[in-house]
Write a structure and sequence with these properties.
Length: 132
């Protein structure tokens, strides 16, 4: 899993207990995951279909730097399934894990449509490369 997105926990991100508000973290994850899916599928019309059990392992507090890791685990006909882990950047301690986030590829009318992808691709200056 690659960890690219980092967030610095600020006072506005905290719950009344002084730790990172779970809803804020889930919003960040959903945004990062859909961006990942859009890039992989090459289509801006992608929606969140399903998020499996969310396992909050530990908390983050003000001043912590966290990082989100996302990886593709399955390419369906119209869907892409991802896995996510969030951890503390300094201690590497897991904060949260989600085994399945499913995104569906849509056409311009909002209907599921095949994406014809079978593996992770990376776009470099208009040239697609596959991860093998």
């Amino acid at each position: 899993m690659n960890f690219y997105t980092r967030k610095w926990i600020k006072p506005e991100d905290l719950n009344p207990n002084g730790s990172l508000f779970g809803g804020t973290l889930l919003r960040w994850i959903d945004e990062e995951a859909v961006i990942y899916a859009i890039v992989q599928l090459g289509n801006p019309h992608v929606v969140t279909k399903y998020i499996s059990e969310i396992n909050f392992v530990s908390s983050a507090k003000q001043g912590d730097i966290i990082e989100m890791g996302i990886e593709a685990v399955n390419f369906g006909r119209t869907s892409l399934t991802l896995r996510c882990e969030v951890r503390n950047k300094i201690t590497r301690k897991t904060i949260l894990s989600i085994e399945k986030l499913v995104f569906v590829n849509l056409d311009t009318d909002g209907n599921p449509t095949p994406h014809n992808k079978t593996e992770i691709t990376y776009a470099y200056m208009g040239i697609e490369k596959t991860n093998k």
